[in-house]
Amino acid sequence: MIIGLIDSGVGGFSILRAAQKALPQHGYVYLADQENFPYSKKSEDELAVLAKYPGPNWTVVGSTKLVNAIEKNDQTSVLRTLKQIHNQHEKTLFAGIVLGCTHFPLASEKIQAFWPNARLFSPSIGVVKQLSKLLPEAKLREQSNDPIFLTTPNYTHSTMLADRYQTII
């Protein structure tokens, strides 16, 4: 079966990588909707509405700067942005960090370096578990399992995305 994945950019590579590892018997088409990147530009105040509900002690941190840096593969900006976030929350002891944006797992090693005692939770695991529940059984593919990469605005094939994906897997 061919599985399609859509994301605003390269963030969904984290989901694609996990799906290919867990479900290698399927083929994949990846659409980077770069024409509409990023999907969300909500402020920290807008995101903090999750913190108004009773329950565990939550700190909500959103960072469009981090998403942009990861999208551009600008490692200097990734580190600079993480350092800024770390400095803003210097006194907060995080037990866990939910990587709530598909881009964030692509920088998980760097995030972990700033918060070494926090457990990271990636959306990839849950998405792939749910995907595996919904898919019919399939035989192992005999042909290549290389994904097809498309991008908007014209839904054209993108060798640039394919090359970028090869650098992260």
Protein model, in words:
This protein has 169 residues and is an alpha/beta fold. It has one domain (2-168). Helix content is 38%, strand content 14%. The protein is built from 7 helices and 6 strands. Strand 1, helix 1 and strand 2 form a beta-alpha-beta unit. Helix 1 packs across helix 6 and helix 3 packs antiparallel against helix 4. The longest helix has 14 residues, at 75-88.
Present the secondary structure layout:
Elements: E1 2-7, H1 13-22, E2 27-32, H2 44-47, H3 64-71, H4 75-88, E3 96-98, H5 108-114, E4 119-121, H6 123-134, E5 148-151, E6 156-157, H7 159-168
Parallel strand pairs: 1-2, 2-5, 3-4
Antiparallel strand pairs: 5-6
Helix pairs in contact: 1-6, 3-4
Number of strands: 6
Shape descriptor reads: globular
**Number of structurally distinct domains:** 1
Number of helices: 7
Q: How are the strands of the largest sheet arranged?
A: 1-2-5-6
Terminal Cα span: 22 Å
Ranges where pLDDT stays below 50 over 5 or more residues in a row are none
Beta strand %: 5-15%
Sequence of secondary-structure elements: EHEHHHEHEHEEH
Radius of gyration, Cα only, in angstroms?
Answer: 17 Å
Please state the average pLDDT score. 86
Largest sheet: 4 strands, mixed
SS-derived structural category: alpha/beta
Proportion of helical residues: 25-40%
